[in-house]
Structure of Putative 5-hydroxytryptamine receptor 3A-like:
Amino acid sequence: MVPVVFVFVLLFLKDGTSSKKVCSYQDVLDYLNLTTDNSVFKLTRPVLDHTHQTTIELDLILFAILAVVEKSQTFIPFVWVSTIWNNEYISWDPAQFCGITEVSLPKEMLWKPDLFIYEMVHKDESPHNPFIYISHDGVVTLEDDINVVSTCKMDMHKFPFDTQRCNISIGSAIHSVEEVRIIPFSNSSRATQFSRELMKTQGEWEFLQLAVDTVNLSYNNRQFEQLIYTFTIKRRPLLHVINFLLPILFFLSLDLASYFISDHRGEKLGFKVTVLLAISVLLLILNDILPSMSNRTPLIATYCIVIFALMLLSLLETILVIYLMEIDSQERLKDDGEHARKKGETDDCTAEKERQTRCSCICKVSDGEKEHEMLPVAEEVFVQVNGSVQSREARVLLLILEELKRLQKLLDLHLSPREEGGRFVLWATRINRVFFISYVASVTLFLSLIFNEWNS
Ligand SMILES: *[C@@H]1O[C@H](CO)[C@@H](O)[C@H](O)[C@H]1NC(C)=O
Ligand SMILES: *[C@@H]1O[C@H](CO)[C@@H](O)[C@H](O)[C@H]1NC(C)=O
Ligand SMILES: *[C@@H]1O[C@H](CO)[C@@H](O)[C@H](O)[C@H]1NC(C)=O
Ligand SMILES: *[C@@H]1O[C@H](CO)[C@@H](O)[C@H](O)[C@H]1NC(C)=O
């Protein structure tokens, strides 16, 4: 009984040790003879027959839009790129190596396709993934995150309501289509969907679509295959609307409202100049955003310039109106002066005579001689006033009062302006009204046109 059990245990142990074979990745590499000095894997395109094509499957997904710089026409997306190709030198049977199907290796040990991005203007300096995967059937997978600093021709016509399309073209630098073919792994709809799901940051720009397209480029009688990824992104305009469009509209409405400020004083002029200066400060901001070269004039520039010009016109009109009113008031002053002088002269003549007679009367009266001679005149006056004969002092006071009244009349004539204006004021009022109506009409027309254009 005991020996039988012993034999079974022995058998079991023997079986267990024999099936528990230990494999390392190094065994796979030894089998493949893949060492750092073995140049077979590094130097040439990994095909056993030179007529074989190497097919590269490329996948690109947008992780983030890091920056879009309008001024320098640069588009900086952060993308994930995966490249898959076949290496005909690599193959092993996973069953021989405890089921190992994939091994990761440093990138430098294998041949890699010479893919590059045509639009890239800066070398990517972010850290790269140092490893690639090889699989038992010879498939090599390389994955990397790339910070692509690319040029992108942007159309600023509709800024800030613009949608931009930026291309990233990927192709082999020297291998023609007979040697290396590049095909997209995901079609446009899948790439768009993946990018939407993985997108980490969406700042000012909203990601709309990622489309992929294959083209063949001819160069030196050789054809090169290229994948073009087109990113469609849309600007979120809120910030620019709040920062820029609305303030200008506010200033414009202030300018319109200034119609109701009286023209008589200089306040209106000062107000309009202030509003115009405020707009020119806003124009400086625009200078920071827009590129100086653009084939089509940006609508926002038209918006600013036209509004600026309209406000300038209204300022000039105010100056004209104030000038007219100035002329009018000067003319009126002159008229009044002459009128008053003439009236004064005639008054003076009669007054002088009167005064002389009166004075002589008073003198005579004050002399106390021939009192009865003056009595009829004096009596006439005093009867008119209070119907009774007054004392001498009262008579003198009365004459002084009359004189004062006359002077006051003269002064009133000089100082108080006439209520109804002269012909210049009439013109000014007419110009003001006509200008205001046409101003409002042109502003409305212009704004509706430009917003329509922005919306289209
Ligand atoms: C492995 O490569 C070395 C040179 O790197 C070579 O000498 C050797 O013969 C190769 N072995 C096999 C089995 O191919
Ligand atoms: C971007 O690529 C598309 C083809 O996918 C092409 O029609 C378009 O002209 C390219 N745009 C630029 C700016 O090169
Ligand atoms: C894109 O690929 C997905 C699967 O990869 C497929 O279901 C879909 O029909 C494809 N769309 C087009 C337009 O080819
Ligand atoms: C590019 O050329 C290859 C080989 O001639 C061909 O198979 C492929 O269809 C071409 N692609 C395009 C987009 O014309």
User: Anything to note?
Assistant: Residues 7-14, 368-379 have pLDDT under 50 and may be disordered. The longest strand covers residues 54-69. The pocket of 2-acetamido-2-deoxy-beta-D-glucopyranose (ligand 2) is lined by residues 153, 167, 213, 228, 230 (CB under 6 Å).
